[in-house]
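Example record

One chain of 409 residues, shown exactly as stored in the release files.
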Amino acid sequence: MQSNTNIKLPLAFILYALAAFVISQIVLFIHNDILATGQFRIPDIWMGAHFLVLGYAAMIAMGAMYQLVPVALLTPIWNQTFGYIQFIITAIGVTLFSIMLGIAPNEALYGGIIAIIGIIMFIIQMVITISKQENKNMMTSFILGAITCLFLTIAAGFLLAWNLAEGGISSHGTILSSHIALGVSGWFTLLIFGFSYKLVPMFSLSHGYSMKWAKPSFITYMAGLIMLIGSFWTDIALLETIGWFVLMAGFFFFVLDIREILAKRLKKKLDKPFSFSLVAILNGLGVHVLAFVFSIFGIQEMSVWGWLIFLYTMAWIIFSILGYLYKIVPFLWWTHKYSNKIGKENVPTLKDMINEKNSVILFTLFMISVAGLTISGLLYINVMVFIFQGLLAFTSLLYTLSIIRVLVK
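Predicted structure tokens for this chain:
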């Protein structure tokens, strides 16, 4: 994971994202009574959701890309100074946009414009960087596919914000569905797919794997995404069902590759945080299966799909990020602070940088809280939603503090 990127750049994104993660869970805890009703299209929930997805997951993804793209694609970041400017603009925009969604949705457009400027700057940075790559590969395809979905996600988000502020867009629900699908299933999933092909072999010490399912996975998943979004605009139920099936197949092909990589690992006992990311992969496949089954049986209840989206976001995307981040941050900080001191003075080992026993407790609490919150939300058990959302907020704070502790060692 060593690259020419100054560690301060990815860390800036990571620290902001961790703060946004805690804020999102506190906001959702404060408004747990709304969560318990299964109503997700409420300004207070929008605020928590955007701090989670845009403030945490997207900012983490951008910070990780500044560090991992040079490693994965063997090409340096185009302009790191531009990256710092992009971080500041994006952080301001995301913060304003998320807050305004909660307190004054009609004015959220202005914060959204600032966030969009920052994200477009990021896209420009990455496109120029990737264009300098000499030998394109499947990871390049996944990353470019993810960036394309990111651009379309913010375009759809801008239309939604414009509709709230000015009106005039009749297909608000269709755009909202497309916005969610492009962001959650497009941008995040494709990006995790791409980087998993680098991180899973690295953390499991695997060699000799083929990645034979990478191309079928990318093509199939993209096709399923196009079909699903097409069904939103055409209102063809059969196309939606086919779209979910093709998406499920694309995810399954990815799982087959990960299975082969792990089968050829040299490291028999996997680290606990990394194992948590592997559990997240199974969660993602499981949610795809559920979505396909719901589509077959014509289940249309908004509360059911709302909780399914929540489960997909948390149990697949957020869990993947939490697990990988727990491995990446100690490595980056240890490399930055101690790699040049080896042989000259006593330095801590990489294992000393993080407490694996604590990670088991944290990740167990995350799984319990998300599972409990989803079940109690579907059953409309208010007191249990209160308890499990409170547990999720508390665990997110403990996780953030554990990452910050690494940075003071």
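Notes: The first helix runs from residue 8 to 30.
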